[in-house]
Design brief:
The chain contains eleven helices and eight strands. It starts with a strand and ends in a 5-residue tail after the last strand. It is 38% helix and 15% strand. Helix 5 crosses helix 6. It is of the alpha/beta class. Strands 1, 2, 3, 4, 5, 6, 7 and 8 form an eight-stranded mixed beta sheet that branches.
Amino acid sequence: MRIDLHTHSRASDGTDTPAELVRNAAAAGLDVVALTDHDTTRGHAESIAALPAGLTLVTGAEISCRVDGIGMHLLAYLFDPDEPEFLRERELVRDDRVPRAQSMVRKLQELGVPITWEQVARIAGDASLGRPHIATALVELGVVDTVSDAFTTEWLADGGRAYAAKHELDPFKAIRLVKQAGGVAVFAHPQAVKRGKVVPESTIGDLAAHGLDGIEVDHMDHDAPTRTRLRSLAGDLGLLTTGSSDYHGSRKSVELGEYTTDPEVYGEITRRATGAFPVPGAGGR
């Protein structure tokens, strides 16, 4: 089985529609794909309706968190999307995205970048607006060569010259909410140092003690020594280890299925989840 547990659609900051994403996942030879848009489940219904036969969908979301001033993301799998408290918190995060993006556009303008709000809004369309849409505008303007190049302290990374904070969950609270909604919680790309400051291993230990299920080890932003160290840490803490592409369509160079999760780990995730179940493809439309 080929299992990719971290992808994004146009419901947040990917370039594929949810329907295109699942069709592309099947074409890439995946058996299981998780749709984990940022702080939203809005793409789930479309992806389920289009799900090809032979492909299983894991519903999820990537939750924006912050601890001790450091941003981090929590992958939540197979939770009940209608659980009231968790739904309310996701809506608070989403509602803060537009004011935050407008603030970053203003900061870029003050830095002399000829970016406009209209340009960013056009790029985002009806998606859940985020930094990658602003980064795409910077690519269009020739300010940076790639979206990844915009995520530095020069521009949009945490603490960068054009960075603006947004509403983010305390990860300990987020884990509680995910569990309360019957889901499984995995720390996304915990050592992606090129994105900015990362949480210390001691904090990962604290999160594990508070119910964290796993950490994403095999990821494009982790080099080989980092993966080895994280795998060892997971073993010490009794955490599951996942692998995922973090696919964003054409917004990033990584391909679907470039990194994958062990079938036994996937089986354990589905065993632990009680809020929702994986959806087998029925042919789609």
